[in-house]
Design a protein that fits this description.
CATH topology of the largest domain in chain B: Rossmann fold
Number of strands of chain B: 5
Bound molecules: adenosine-5'-triphosphate, magnesium ion
Shape of chain B: elongated
CATH superfamily of the domain at 174-281 in chain A: Tetratricopeptide repeat domain
Helix content of chain B: 40-55%
Shape of chain A: elongated
Largest sheet of chain A: none
Radius of gyration of chain B: 22 Å
Order of helices and strands of chain B: HHEHEHHEHEHEHHHHH
Strand content of chain A: under 5%
Oligomer: heterodimer
Order of helices and strands of chain A: HHHHHHHHHH
Number of domains of chain B: 2
Largest sheet of chain B: 5 strands, parallel
Strand order of the largest sheet of chain B: 2-3-4-1-5
Largest interface: A-B, 28 and 27 residues
Number of helices of chain B: 12
Helix content of chain A: over 70%
Distance between the termini of chain B: 32 Å
CATH superfamily of the largest domain in chain B: P-loop containing nucleotide triphosphate hydrolases
Structural class of chain B: alpha/beta
CATH class of the domain at 174-281 in chain A: Mainly Alpha
Chain lengths: 281, 271
């Protein structure tokens, strides 16, 4: 019976798998955008802050002027200390405002590069310890390269992208392992063959069926293999052997002769001799 | 909709070859006409070939049904691999002669040669899955056709390996060879809808939009067997939801998700 619930789960996985490339692209773009806007905002902030300061300064100066004028009207002696005090205040303000953002910026840079180093180390160690992950990691290498190019311009996005690609690599590797376990099941291989139409798979199936003494299926899959690639010696051998087992010795002989004519395969010659001499039955 | 409509729709796509389920498709009816014409011409053999699941067996069944009212026609759906058995069956069908012992080729061809045709109509023997006959057997069949007292229509799925064999045997001797192909997207649409309408499942037939047909065609490449499997599973899932979770199938059109689920189940997608 149909297990719809399990099928729903498989479908979810399938969808997720088909979306991951887009998700990764989307993620890296958003991260890049966010980081760019972060830096530009910072830049504009510092500009606008200095603008504010300039405005404040102006105010102060105009106030100074006012006081100056009023004080000048009243008495010149008092006006001097007031002016000086106010100027000193303004200078202090300026120093504070200018220094603080640039310090933060350097701090964040430092912490980020440290984070990146850690992640990078993690990435390397996982690569060494898990052989199977290497394959998956290879797939990821390209995006990583791209990311590294970008890294020269911006530090922040690269770090999170590397994190991303590591999690992806882990995912694909587990899927690979699962598949390999199931490969022992001939039915599963058939399913895969029906999708991929790879001659290697059909040859594998043909050989398996031959071992199981299901010669009709061995015949069929050897045929299918040949349809995909008619130059695989092993497939011709299995095909001919199955024919003999199916009681069609003549056809096997005919087939082998034709194959030998166009390939001069020694294995085929040997089999032909064995069939003709009755050694192979 | 009642759950039973999905069950009925599902069973339409069981993989059976039965002339009464034949769907008239434009391209197929053209080929069909060509095949029928070639049978009426005084020629030796007709070769019908194409990939597995392109409808060769279906085609033969329909042809057999249609012409057997007008002339002697026999369809051998599975090859009779034993030679003596093959000739004995032919003798029984063509001339109603029973042989108890062995009947070899030389004996049988003499019988054929000595027979007069009734009303000059040549009886037709149709051999399905003919790729399983041996080369020497094909040679004997060819010699039988040469007598012009019996005509053979041969269906086989041609592969490269058999191509070597087929070329030498058929090229000069076959008067007509007809190739069957997978369905195009528009043929697939007609195929699915007509199949459903034939059993009065109009509601489910109208659920197939061009978009869903295109997706099915993409998954099956227009192969009839794969399409049958896919649509069968699709309605199986619909049937399940109709009974257990009707909320999931509220839409008026076939859901993409369920097509994909069916494709996962039948191995057309692997994940
Ligand atoms: N014109 C048609 N009308 C209705 N059903 C069809 C038609 N053509 C094909 N089919 C269906 O498609 C399926 C496959 O067709 P069929 O078995 O005739 O293919 P085949 O070419 O003989 O395959 P094989 O090479 O594996 O023997 C069958 O279940 C049949 O019902
Ligand atoms: Mg068939």
């Amino acid at each position: 019976m149909l297990n719809v619930h399990e099928l729903e789960n498989r479908h979810k996985k399938y969808k997720l798998k088909s979306y991951t490339p887009y998700l990764i692209i989307l993620l890296s773009i958003t991260i890049a955008l966010v980081s760019i806007s972060f830096f530009t905002l910072n830049y504009f902030n510092s500009i606008s802050k200095s603008k504010n300061e300039a405005a404040e300064q102006k105010e102060v100066y105009t106030k100074n002027l006012e006081t100056k004028s009023t004080v000048e009207e009243k008495s010149e002696n008092i006006s001097v200390p007031i002016e000086e005090k106010k100027r000193i205040e303004v200078q202090k303000k300026q120093e504070k405002i200018l220094l603080s953002p640039s310090l933060d910026f350097i701090k964040s840079m430092e912490s980020q590069t440290q984070m990146y180093k850690k992640e990078n180390e993690n990435f390397k160690t996982t690569e060494i310890t898990e052989k199977k992950m290497q394959e998956a990691a290879k797939k990821v290498k390209e995006p990583v390269k791209k990311i590294q190019e970008r890294k020269e311009e911006i530090v922040l996005p690269k770090i999170e992208e590397v994190k991303e690609s590591i999690t992806v690599a882990k995912e694909t590797s587990t899927i690979d392992i699962k598949r390999r376990d199931e490969e022992t099941d001939i039915k599963h291989v058939i399913k895969r063959f029906n999708v991929n139409h790879s001659p290697a798979l059909s040859l594998f199936i043909a050989k398996k069926y031959y071992q199981l003494e299901n010669y009709e299926q061995a015949y069929n899959y050897a045929l299918a293999t040949n349809e995909l690639n008619n130059d695989i010696e092993a497939s011709w051998i299995i095909f001919s052997k199955s024919l003999v087992k199916l009681g069609k010795k003549e056809m096997a002989i005919e087939t082998l002769k034709k194959y030998i004519k166009h390939s001069s395969s020694s294995q085929a010659k040997q089999l032909l001799d064995e069939i003709l001499s009755g050694k192979f039955k | 909709m009642k759950p039973s409509i999905y069950e009925n729709s599902r069973d339409v796509f069981l993989d059976t070859v039965n002339a009464k389920d034949y769907i008239q498709l434009e391209r197929i009816s053209m080929i069909y006409q060509a095949l029928k014409d070639s049978i009426e011409k005084p020629l030796k053999m007709v070769l019908l070939y194409g990939k597995p699941g392109t409808g060769k067996s279906m085609f033969l069944s329909k042809l057999h049904e249609n012409i057997s009212s007008a002339q002697k026609a026999y369809l051998y759906k599975t090859p009779i691999l034993d030679e003596s058995e093959f000739f004995k069956t032919l003798a029984q069908d063509l001339y109603e002669i029973r042989y108890d012992g062995e009947l070899n080729f030389t004996q049988f061809i003499k019988v054929v040669e000595n027979r007069e045709l009734i009303e000059a109509i040549v009886p037709v023997i149709m051999l399905d899955e003919a790729q399983l006959y041996s080369t020497s057997m094909m040679e004997k069949i060819r010699l039988l056709s040469d007598t012009r007292k019996v005509k053979f229509v041969i269906a086989l799925h041609k592969t490269q390996k058999e191509d070597i064999i087929a070329k030498e045997h058929f090229q000069t001797r076959i008067w007509e060879s007809i190739k069957l192909e997978n369905a195009s997207s528009s043929e697939l649409k007609i195929y699915i809808k007509k199949k459903l309408m034939k059993v009065n499942c109009l509601d489910t037939a109208s659920m197939f939009t061009q978009k869903s047909i295109n997706l099915i065609h993409k998954l099956t490449d227009g192969n009839y067997i794969d399409t049958n499997k896919l649509v069968y599973t699709l309605f199986d899932i619909y049937h399940y939801y109709a009974q257990n979770n009707p909320n999931k199938i509220k839409g008026n059109y076939i859901s993409k998700k369920i097509i994909e689920m069916a494709a996962l189940h039948t191995g057309l997608i692997n994940a």
